[in-house]
Amino acid sequence: MSTTNRTEVVRSTSGHPRLLFPFLATFYTRGEPITYALLRVAFGLSILTHGIPKLLGLPHGSMADPMAGTTHLIGNVLGLPFAPQLAIFVALLETFGAIAIAIGFGTRLLGLVFTVQMIVICFAIGPIYPWIDRGIEYPIMLGFVSLLLAIRGGGRYSVDRRLGFER
Questions:
Q1: Which residues, in sequence order, are CB contacts of 110 under 8 Å at separation 6+?
Q2: Rounded-to-integer distance, Cα 102 and Cα 94, Å
Q3: Which carries the bigger pLDDT value, residue 73 or residue 135?
Q4: Which of 36, 48, 128, 158 is the most buried (most CB within 10 A)?
Q5: Sign of CA dihedral 94, 97, 100, 102
Q6: Backbone angles phi, psi at 14, to 5 degrees
């Protein structure tokens, strides 16, 4: 007689983890690809709200000039060269990259690029925007969502899938 390791997941006869509420199995199975697509769209739209003001020169939140703020962060806080050019890249990424993520196009690559961006943002603003006080938790969460997108891809309802880049 074999014993089951307490750390193992109890599995049903089909090999899937046993559910606490088995009657919801169909709901979970059908809902997963839809909720993943909605997560991807919500992420893209959230990022888009940061890109459009930079490109159009519109105020955003407490920033009168988000492009100038981005240029300042890149050049003066991070100390990177070519700050104006990198700021334009960020604005384009946050606009067109966000739209692409929302529709599921180039999801893995853009997910990786957004993950790197969120890591840089966390290191750049972490000392001045501590936890809860000014919102460092948002780039942390967006970073993990973008990492999930990079690992998982566009999903069932994506342009990537329609083009044959996803299974």
A1: 93, 97, 100, 101, 149
A2: 11
A3: 73
A4: 158
A5: negative
A6: -85, -5
Burial class (CB in 10 A: 0-12, 13-18, 19+), 164: exposed
C-alpha to C-alpha distance for 48 and 27, rounded to whole angstroms: 31
At which residue do the structure tokens 């890149």 appear? Answer: 74
Q: Is 127 exposed, middle or buried (0-12, 13-18, 19+ CB in 10 A)?
A: exposed
Query: What single-letter amino acid sits at 58?
Result: L
35-87 pLDDT tens trace: 999 999 999 999 999 999 999 999 888 889 999 999 999 999 899 999 999 99
Q: Which residue has the higher pLDDT, 133 or 80?
A: 80
DSSP bridge pairs for 17:
11
